[in-house]
Every structure is written in structure tokens, then in C-alpha cells.
Amino acid sequence: MSAFAEATVLITHEVGLHARPSVKFTKLAKSFAAEVEIALAANGPWFDAKSIVKVMATRAPKGTMLHIRASGEAATEAVGALAELVRRDFDEGAGHARTA
């Protein structure tokens, strides 16, 4: 039986899920033996969290509730780590946010 996990987390990063945060998010998602998806609404549509193109295409701005779900061997670990990355502002924080 395959594991399943999900979480919802608020994007507080100044630029939202833009280029640098998306790269960090997908890189971390790829490190887990799980199918990982994200959505901007609880009922979807759902996007492959391991695809930089699909993650960036969400254009999720600051203040968006990001829904994360995963299934597979490392589902719980994947969702926990990805939600924590978002909570940490993708390890960039307000002091590191750049203006475009």
C-alpha cells in the first residue's frame, strides 16, 4: 500500500512562487521517492511539483495558499520538507528578497 500525505501552506515569500523559489521547490521535490503535486485550490487543478515549467506556470503570488500532496514511499517526508521550505520563505527570507 502506498503512503499518502498532504498539507496546505501560506506563501509568504515577497515574489511568491517565482523563478528562484520554484527551482528550490522542484529540486527538493525531485529528491523524494514520491509523486508530488501542488495546487492553488484544494480541488485542483493539480500540477507536477517536479516540473519547473509547471510550478512556475502557477504564478502563485505572495499570500496564496499552496496545497501540496504526495503519494509513494516517501510521501510524508516529501510533503513535510516542501511545506517547511515554503514556511522558511524558500530560505531567502525578507532580507534576501530582490526586486525585479
TrEMBL record:
<dbReference type="InterPro" id="IPR000032">
    <property type="entry name" value="HPr-like"/>
</dbReference>
<dbReference type="InterPro" id="IPR001020">
    <property type="entry name" value="PTS_HPr_His_P_site"/>
</dbReference>
<keyword id="KW-0813">Transport</keyword>
<dbReference type="InterPro" id="IPR035895">
    <property type="entry name" value="HPr-like_sf"/>
</dbReference>
<dbReference type="Pfam" id="PF00381">
    <property type="entry name" value="PTS-HPr"/>
</dbReference>
<keyword id="KW-0762">Sugar transport</keyword>
<dbReference type="InterPro" id="IPR050399">
    <property type="entry name" value="HPr"/>
</dbReference>
<feature type="domain" description="HPr">
    <location>
        <begin position="4"/>
        <end position="93"/>
    </location>
</feature>
<protein>
    <recommendedName>
        <fullName>Phosphocarrier protein HPr</fullName>
    </recommendedName>
</protein>
<comment type="function">
    <text>General (non sugar-specific) component of the phosphoenolpyruvate-dependent sugar phosphotransferase system (sugar PTS). This major carbohydrate active-transport system catalyzes the phosphorylation of incoming sugar substrates concomitantly with their translocation across the cell membrane. The phosphoryl group from phosphoenolpyruvate (PEP) is transferred to the phosphoryl carrier protein HPr by enzyme I. Phospho-HPr then transfers it to the PTS EIIA domain.</text>
</comment>
